[in-house]
């Protein structure tokens, strides 16, 4: 084992971080889409 495998900075599950990142990005693009559809509907 190398030094980085012995001395890890965090032992959190990577799946949780990945899921949170996916939800945040998905929510961001969904918000952009909804705003664009609302503007298109108004004009």
From TrEMBL:
Alphabetized InterPro entries for the sequence = YqzM (IPR025416)
Q: Which UniProt keywords apply?
A: Membrane, Transmembrane, Transmembrane helix
- The molecule here is called YqzM family protein
Transmembrane feature ranges:
20-39
Organism field: Alteribacter lacisalsi
């Amino acid at each position: 084992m190398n030094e980085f495998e012995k001395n890890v900075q965090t032992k959190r599950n990577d799946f949780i971080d990945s899921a949170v990142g996916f939800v945040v990005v998905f929510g961001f693009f969904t918000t952009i889409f909804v705003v664009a559809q609302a503007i298109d509907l108004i004009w």
